[in-house]
Input
Amino acid sequence: MTTQIEKAELLRSLHVPGVPLILTNVWDAISATTVARAPGVRALASASHSISNARGFEDGEGMPVEEALDSIRRIVAAVDLPVTADFEKGYADDPEGVRANVVRLIETGAVGINIEDSVGAEKAPTFPIEVAAARVAAARAAAEDTGVPLVINARVDTLAGGGEWDDAVARANAYLDAGADVIFFLGLSDEAKVERAIAEVHGKISVIGHPGAVPLGRLAELGVSRVSFGPFALGSALANLQRTAAEVTALGDYPDDLGFEFAL
Output
């Protein structure tokens, strides 16, 4: 993999309905290299929540944009795989600001982006649909400015924020029309909702996986194109760390995971 354009094209090609791209989210260089070495992994995704918390900030753009960009730059530099970045709301109030910041994101070497449509740190309220679509269009314009075919995963927060189904679908299709490649549809809590989203959204669907969600194999059968895990991946790592701390503090056996060999 020698060019950023090639990485972007590879990332786009990995979004196949029924054969979903599985992205175990990372938050720094060492988590990136660790996941990258796992069998079958072909791309990486950052998680803004995890990066923010690891650096001592709250999620929801509590971290300065300079630190957000630095975190992505370090992840990209650590691996040779395509990296898609969770860039929250673009760290800007208006579409032109989003466009400028996405250009800066692309300059880190990232080849994909998540962009959200909620206004604040919560899932509601959301930007008016025309404003949210303009922000997606701004991200696409930034890709055109740089010549890198950025893969845009546009997040629809409507259902997760307590909104209505029809609004969520209208937003999804508006974001696709504005230049998104994939719709990150939050709130698809059961198989029926996944099926309905795939039927009514005119493009590829991305979902978040976690305990209690629709099983991964079933998501593939239903035609999902991408599954990521957001901050749940960091939660898994921290749960294991806490278990290890409890075991050794109690003078128990050395956990086998203490012998895990890691490297940048």
Summary: The chain is about 45% helix and 10% strand. The longest helix spans residues 129-146. The first strand starts at residue 21 and ends at 23.
